[in-house]
What we know:
Blueprint (H helix, E strand, L loop, with lengths): L4 H11 L11 E7 L3 E6 L2 E6 L9 H15 L1 H4 L3 E6 L2 H8 L7 H17 L2 E6 L6 H7 L9 E2 L1 H11 L4 E5 L8 E4 L21 E3 L6 H11 L3 E6 L7 H7 L5 E2 L7 E3 L4 E2 L8 E6 L6
Parallel strand pairs: 1-4, 4-5, 7-8, 7-9, 9-10
Antiparallel strand pairs: 1-2, 2-3, 6-12, 10-14, 11-14, 12-13
Helix pairs in contact: 2-5
Amino acid sequence: MSSCPESMERRGLFRGVSMGVVVYRREVVTTDASSMEWGAVWQHRTVQGRWCPQDRSKHINMLELRAVHLALRHFLPHLQGRHVLIWSDNTSVVYHINHQGGTRSAQLLKESQDLLEWASVHLSTLRAVYLPGLHNQVADSLSRWAQAPGEWSLHSDIIRLIWDLFGQAEVDLFATEESTHCHLWFSLTGAAGALGQDALAHPWPRVLLYAFPPLSLIWPTLQRVLEEGHKMLLVAPYWPARPWFPLLWSLCHCVPWCLPTRRDLLSLLGGQIWHPDPQRFRLWVWPLGDLNSS
Length: 294
């Protein structure tokens, strides 16, 4: 018995038709370039580089587009065969990627063709969207080499574990507004912190101190503790071959604690950038001075 046309049409509506491949997730890569450097971010991982002298004379649109290509090549082991979305604060980059080139500049057309031909082989799809510069701070800081050494901050979960083990510190000696873990802090660079700028140039309060200094400042920090008898939770590498290590060991009042392994152990800009290899530092917390004394 044959079905009536109306019932067949209804079954067809319920069955639907194939929509092809539906992109349910794109890997987002944020890029930026200046006349001197370029930078990019993917899942808190970063890459940055400096332009060679011959590239620095090129138009900024060329450099922004080339930064996209360099970033994708760097992250390719993680992006191979994926759908990728570029976030850029350069409208020319967005236009040339989404329109497969342009007609106003032969150089930009060639640069975009090189990028898109490479992407067609290695990626499933490549699209771009405009991201206002106000929201592109991470890539922008990388493209301007803005991050200062020593501004890495421990994850807040690790800080809570440190406080639970040794007591909560009241003053952060080497910090920025984004990285400090205490209400009172000395600024490492830039604008002065709540207690001033450059902790080594000021007297330290007689409270439990927290310090995660740049490597170059570990020695003067230990000398200050030795001379003035401060109580301190010092975050420093377990590097016995360094000249400051014997002094560090002699000042340690109880058993130090090895920081646990995690990818986001160290970060910049409020956790937006992760250190690529935090484990190489072998960071420990060293309790200096008698923490139980009044």
